[in-house]
């Protein structure tokens, strides 16, 4: 089994984003970047399948600027075998990303594509579903458990009513949820080995995909600061305050 794992370079989840002074976007200058946490979970799941003898090869893919190679090296240090970097100075929108990944999937012929359910920078939660639609493959989204059983992949996912288990025929798309696993830290020897693993560089033009943006960001602003609460002495005062604020009639 071959597994394809798309990964994205985003602002580290421990960093508080800052909006640019002109409100044109988020300031990325001198900001720590790392792999999208949901994609880390996807890489970890692929590596576990390989360690269990289910998968033979893991290919990590990233789309973005040249610095995204660092993100690929992280995936390689975790246990992936090789990488593909699609260099694009502007970050393509979800549909363009899905189209590029679809072309890569057609070339690589993976049995599974495992990716994070969403990226923490835009929270779109679109690429996995779009990719499944473009390829016509089965999909299991928000996976909290993945088990390979013969020629089927059983995916347990969280739904409003509890848990739902799907039996997917391969090739298939899986998007990962937080409860699927706990990603490992790459060891120093594996980090050194990752530097020697191959990374192929491509461009969107190599796959015939137009990445010109279809959406225009008009303005980015920070959320309003939360106002301080107030302690009231009794229920009557609480009700009076809520009426004053228009929260109750």
How would you sum up this structure, described in words?
The protein has 249 residues and is of the alpha/beta class. The protein has one domain (2-222): 3-Layer(aba) Sandwich (Rossmann fold), CATH 3.40.50.620. 27% of the residues lie in helices and 29% in strands. The protein contains six helices and 13 strands. It has helices spanning 37-51, 69-78, 94-108, 127-135, 188-194, 235-245; strands at 2-7, 9-11, 18-19, 26-27, 33-35, 57-64, 82-87, 112-116, 138-149, 152-159, 162-169, 172-176, 199-202. The protein has a nine-stranded mixed β-sheet, sandwiched between helices. The longest helix is centred in the first third of the chain and has 15 residues, at 37-51. The chain is globular. The N and C termini lie far apart (62 Å).
Key structural traits:
ET-Flavoprotein_bsu_CS, electron transport, ETF_b, 29% strand, 249 residues, transport, ETF_beta_N, Rossmann fold, 6 helices
State mean pLDDT (0 to 100 scale): 91
Fraction in helix: 25-40%
CATH architecture: 3-Layer(aba) Sandwich
Described by its quaternary structure, the protein is single chain
Structurally, the number of domains stands at: 1
Using the coordinates shown, work out and report the CATH topology: Rossmann fold
Strand content: 25-35%
The CATH homologous superfamily corresponds to HUPs
Q: Mind telling me the C-alpha Rg?
A: 21 Å
- Could you tell me the number of beta strands? 13
